[in-house]
Amino acid sequence: METKTLRTMKQTKRGLLFQSEDIKVVFNEDATTENYLKSHFIEGESSFNLLFLLSPNINLQASDCGTQFKFTKNQYILHYSSSENRAELWTEDQEVLKYLQIQINYQYVFNLIDPHSNTESAEILKNMKDNNFIFLHKQTPPNMTVEMHMILKEISGYSKKGVMQKLFIEAKIIKLLILIFEQFNEKDIEEDLSKTPETIKKFLDENYHKNLKIEEISKIIGINQNKLRREFKEHYQTTIVDYISELRMLKAKKMIINKQIMIKEIAIECGYEYVQNFTRAFKKKFGVSPEKLRLG
């Protein structure tokens, strides 16, 4: 880690908090009375880097890509670097430049997660290598949780050395990774839930002609019955039953003009087991029976 600034009037608190064969933890805090402050850090070859931005308005430019990021206070990224990479951080307008970097060897994470053990582990490692943990939603870096803050405080304040420090740091880093995976998993669940009404509608559009009950739809889609009804009605201002009936009647009206198709066949095609139920629903919708509409 090397740190420099274009101005000489500054105060720096930085240092290596911990280093082993697999893990490196570095804390940096620079302050200046001038207008521009810059810092550099190195991402090692085949390493995952957790970067916690602990002061506001930090800009980041990595040498391995042309993208520049700007962070607000208490955001973080989890970045994989296949080769040694130099990144530049800077802030302006007399801001403090404060961050904590945790570098983890790829093989350590590989052994920890064991992607060959199950598909979930393989997916997590793939997401890590593909740098899918840089943005939580669209172009927004994730925000640190209270528990993450507490862990960083514990890491920076731990005073023991030797094997106890190694075990302590590794345990805390594993906990950080768990929190990150949980945070992104919650994001995925939220996104899935936001698409719940569309998912239900798509299923109904494709299966309205089948004799399905709400209980069966609930099991197939994997959504609680009450939630299924509530989400759909809130989004489309109609019930699932009424929507299915509407789709069936629209199809029946198109088919009824074809006199070659028997009324019973139309009823079955539209999802009605009994012709009487079909006739009743048709008359309620259009004011006349299927037979009278066909006769004109």
The CATH class label of the largest domain is Mainly Beta
Named CATH architecture of the largest domain: Sandwich
Order of helices and strands: EEEEEEEEEEHHHHHHHHHHH
Radius of gyration, taken over Cα atoms and rounded to an integer in Å? 30 Å
CATH topology of the largest domain: Jelly Rolls
Q: What is the β-strand count?
A: 10
By oligomeric state, this entry counts as single chain
Domain tally: 2
Largest beta sheet, briefly?
5 strands, antiparallel
Instruction: State mean pLDDT (0 to 100 scale).
Output: 84
Q: What is the terminal separation in angstroms? A: 86 Å
The poorly predicted ranges are 1-10
Counting helices, strands and paired strands, the structural category is: alpha+beta
Sequence of strands across the biggest β-sheet: 1-4-9-6-7
Helical segment tally?
11
Helix content, binned percent:
40-55%
Share in β-strands: 15-25%
In CATH, what is the homologous superfamily of the largest domain? Jelly Rolls
Coarse morphology: elongated
What does this structure look like?
The structure is a single chain. The longest helix has 32 residues. This protein is 46% helix and 24% strand. The chain has eleven helices and ten strands. The N terminus is likely disordered. It is an alpha+beta fold and 296 residues long. The protein folds into two domains: 192 residues, Jelly Rolls (Sandwich), CATH 2.60.120; 100 residues, Homeodomain-like (Arc Repressor Mutant, subunit A), CATH 1.10.10.60. The strands form two sheets. It has a five-stranded antiparallel sheet, with no helix packed on it. A five-stranded antiparallel sheet has the order 2-3-10-5-8. Helix 3 runs antiparallel to helix 4. It starts with a strand and ends with a helix. It is elongated, with a radius of gyration of 30 Å. It holds the Pfam family HTH_18.
